[in-house]
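ERR on first pass: missing label on line 2. Operator R.T. fixed the label and resubmitted. Corrected input:
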Amino acid sequence: MLKFNKETYLKNAKLTYETRDIIEKVADEISDEGYKNIFFISVGGSIAIMWPIQEILKQITDIPVYSEQAAEVVLTGHKQLSKDSIVIMASKSGDTKETLEAAKWCNKNGYRVVSLVGTPGAPLESLSKWAIPNKALNGVEFEYMQLFMLIFKLLANRNEFPNYEKFATQLEGLPKNLLEAKQKFDPIADEIAEKYHDEPYNIWVGDGEMWGEVYLFSMCILEEMQWVRTKSVSSSEFFHGTLELVEKGVPVFLVKGEGYRRKIDDRVERFCRQYTDKLVVIDTKDYELKGIDDEFRWILAPTISTALLVDRLARHYEKHTGHDLDIRRYYRQFDY
Amino acid sequence: MLKFNKETYLKNAKLTYETRDIIEKVADEISDEGYKNIFFISVGGSIAIMWPIQEILKQITDIPVYSEQAAEVVLTGHKQLSKDSIVIMASKSGDTKETLEAAKWCNKNGYRVVSLVGTPGAPLESLSKWAIPNKALNGVEFEYMQLFMLIFKLLANRNEFPNYEKFATQLEGLPKNLLEAKQKFDPIADEIAEKYHDEPYNIWVGDGEMWGEVYLFSMCILEEMQWVRTKSVSSSEFFHGTLELVEKGVPVFLVKGEGYRRKIDDRVERFCRQYTDKLVVIDTKDYELKGIDDEFRWILAPTISTALLVDRLARHYEKHTGHDLDIRRYYRQFDY
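pass 2 clean. output:
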């Protein structure tokens, strides 16, 4: 596969899964201390992968869950955020400006922070009551795995996720499945990127636990790393404005999930099949998860799409646009 | 002013303000019955104007506030939504498919619905425990006024909005101010529309209590009614992807509010002034609210922007594109 090292990937998977003990210990400590609600606070791609979890949690826990932009919450506060809250943060670099400021602000106010930190010794680590090392070099799926273990262990401790032990054990086999998904998708990614890399405008659609994926790929990859123009919209909201822009020649990318909201994705698909000749459907159902129970598939669906998109499709866009994924005009290039 | 009737506008204002007694009675009844949390449930433009209120409420009430897409919540449910919740809905037509289904679903589950219904006798009315007539023919600002009276009277009853009486009394003078704002903005709207109506791609930015405004205008007006391609992004998230698309020749429309997050809008403005020659700033601070205390301005800012954008700027786009605002390809044209 293009720019992909299988051994590195499986090593990253191992390094991630090895943090299970640390994560469960953190979850147990948080459970012992008690908490009234959960706040996800981060920015960009890091908050985007927390949204699917927030969507999932709506359906399975009595604990209120909120998500806030790091740059905003420090200015406004939030009446539900208190010393009884648990704040979950993540930063791959561990020094994302807005997230760091929010972590400092949390500390000042006595809010307990648990964070996923991608860089050992990064500033976010020392600002967190609990820091979980995110050792994998890259791969958003590995961040999902850690967040899942943290969140579902917390829920298991409240008897809201009784199959946690089975879930966490089966999770070890997820990366191998994702590797196979990548292999299956790689030629498809090449075709998609070849056909669409030069489009002047692209609509990306997905819903619920897949919305963060659509948001992340269109903004943090296509816009930030490829300077490709996108509009992302949830499947439900697609029908309240954006649909009017669909016509022959307009590319629509639909990311279908496996939860209850899939019904709305189906409606988007039916509509777009009729009105554009450039519909691309990324359906996680097309990819097997061997050794993993079907009951967990809707939860794991975002890990499949992220493996396909953020890794494979991004690489093939890079190949066809000739635009290195690491090149930025502005972001982290200087102060602004 | 283009396609604007001053007398009709002031009559709509009067019809709206006359519902104050009804609204306060509803708020008092809800307060007497008691409630554990508030759910905003709607779609499209109707949910978009609830988001600013949700953002405002984060800062001033201990009551948890959630917002859900009508089409989604009926499929997934929500663990915080119960008979102890108050569900707030709105529909101008009173027969929006997704909202109606959600109202039916709420009824079936025993959730109490209070709704703003724009059409007397519309199906949503009979599905609501409390229906507030939204008598104004048009004008999103009038819907805001009704929602503000409902919400802040609820808060006043909890001693969380002690200046409610002054707020509601001063609200009567809002439409006259908005009328003057429209008059001041009308030639500016003409200039903006003339210059930008044919742009192939437009970035719209705003944050917090202005985000719903940015979302609504770009999706429900420019996309739905003008078939103009947009990307809308919050001011905080602008810096995590979309900024890379800014360069000379790319139009960026920034809607600045007056709350704490204005600091982030300022950052967007500083950035864009440097990197595009097509920055348009819509700043509610440029418009007076005579007879209204400054402490209420950050709350009322979305009513100013909506008066400028949804009414004035939309009309001038229509003039320059020659595309009637009422023409749709698909929406409500047939089943899909």
